[in-house]
């Protein structure tokens, strides 16, 4: 199957990839518009460090999307949130829709 069919990517979010910390706060890369399927459902997830946190939304986007943890994301309604973690869902030749699952605070 390859990727999620474009017709299902009905939402657009803006991702500012987290780069580093500075003396004045977090540094972010260039804002990028990302087509995705946004699921606004609250659920408990674990960070890459094993801490349990609450995710308010999950975005499903192309595997090529760059959204490291702590990246800043603007949702379609204008709300700003942060990436908890991004999980690659790559089934190779299994016929599954390959995508990046972006869990948001």
Written overview of the protein:
This protein is mostly beta strands and 105 residues long. The chain has a domain at 1-26 and 59-81. It has strands at residues 2-3, 11-16, 18-22, 25-28, 32-39, 43-46, 52-55, 57-61, 72-74, 80-89, 97-104. It has a six-stranded antiparallel barrel. The chain has a two-stranded antiparallel ribbon with strand order 3-4. A two-stranded antiparallel ribbon has the order 6-7. The protein starts with a strand and ends with a strand.
Helix segment tally:
0
Strand share of the residues?
over 45%
Shape: globular
Strand order of the largest sheet: 2-5-8-11-10-9
Oligomer: single chain
Helix-strand category: mainly beta
Number of strands: 11
Taking Cα atoms only, what radius of gyration do you get, to the nearest Å? 14 Å
Nearest-integer average pLDDT:
93
* Straight-line N-to-C gap: 30 Å
Low-confidence segments, given as residue ranges, are none
Order of helices and strands: EEEEEEEEEEE
Q: In which range does the helix fraction lie?
A: under 10%
Characterize the largest beta sheet: strand count, sense, and whether it forms a barrel.
Answer: 6 strands, antiparallel, barrel
Q: Key terms for this structure?
A:
two-stranded antiparallel sheet; 105 residues; mainly beta
Give a brief rundown of this model.
With about 100 residues, this protein is mainly β. The chain has a domain at about 1-25 and about 60-80. It is about 0% helix and about 55% strand.
SSE layout:
Layout (H helix, E strand, L loop, with lengths): L1 E2 L7 E6 L1 E5 L2 E4 L3 E8 L3 E4 L5 E4 L1 E5 L10 E3 L5 E10 L7 E8 L1
Parallel strand pairs: 1-11
Antiparallel strand pairs: 2-5, 2-9, 3-4, 5-8, 6-7, 8-11, 9-10, 10-11
